[in-house]
Amino acid sequence: MDTNSYLMFLLIGALLVVIDGQVIYRSGRKMLRQSASDAGSAESQTKLVVVLFHLVSFGVLALASTIGEWNTLTGVVARLGLLLLFLAVAHWAATTALSSMRDRESARSRRLTRQQRREVGGAEIGEPPVSPMPGQIDTSMGTEPYVSPSIDDGDPYSR
After folding, report:
1. 89 in a domain, yes or no?
2. What is the model's pLDDT at position 88?
3. pLDDT at res. 1
4. Which of 13, 68, 132, 141 has the most neighbouring CB atoms within 10 Å?
5. Helices (H) and strands (E) in the chain — how many of each?
6. Residue by residue, what is the 3-state secondary structure of 62-85?
7. What pLDDT digit, counting tens, does each position of 68-87 carry?
8. Are 32 and 45 in contact (CB under 8 A)?
9. CA 32 → CA 20, 23, 108, 112, distances in Å?
10. How many domains does the chain have?
11. Among 75, 29, 77, which Cα is nearest to 49's?
12. pLDDT of residue 120
């Protein structure tokens, strides 16, 4: 039972690590693609987190396989239980890392949107800065009048 239980523990442990790593990879990739402006960046960030997860998890699996006696079935079950607890903590850490990356990317994208709005005078891109008053629209040209941005948006003497 000694060698068989040792190999069975390594096989089950490796399968658990690989399956959990794939779950983190697929869900993390989807999560980062939703907020990232560059899909390649989301892909590479997810791969880095998953590779770190795999390296640490396989290291713990290797260390757990060398500790203690392998003569009893309860020893194998205890090691699998500890491995599962570790995988839960590692899964939480990887998910937390991916969600903080998503939050940073979302904050960066909101900051860029606000900056673009300020450059256009507070309006969405492509919209006039203010709505014209009735009778102010030049119907012969088909354009709306230009209204300068507020003095609060920048230095009026910088041009």
Report:
1. yes
2. 93
3. 47
4. 13
5. 3, 0
6. HHHHHCCCCCCHHHHHHHHHHHHH
7. 766 677 777 888 888 999 99
8. yes
9. 18, 14, 13, 18
10. 1
11. 29
12. 61
- Whether the full predicted model's pTM is greater than 0.70, yes or no, is no
Q: What is the CA radius of gyration of the chain?
A: 28
Collect the ranges in the chain with pLDDT lower than 50: 1
**Tally of residues, the chain:** 159
Q: What is the pLDDT of residue 119?
A: 66
Structure tokens at 58: 């396989």
Local structure of residue 147 (DSSP, 8 states):
-
Instruction: Give a yes or no: residue 45 inside a domain.
Output: yes
Which domain, by its residues, includes 28?
2-119
Nearest to 60 by CA among 90, 26, 37: 90
Please check whether residue 135 lies inside any domain of the structure. no
Neighbours of 32 (CB within 10 A): 23
> Sign (positive/negative) of CA torsion 126, 129, 132, 138?
negative
Instruction: Classify residue 137: in a domain, yes or no.
Output: no
pLDDT at position 77: 81
Please check whether residue 14 is in contact with residue 1, taking contact to mean a CB–CB distance below 8 angstroms: no
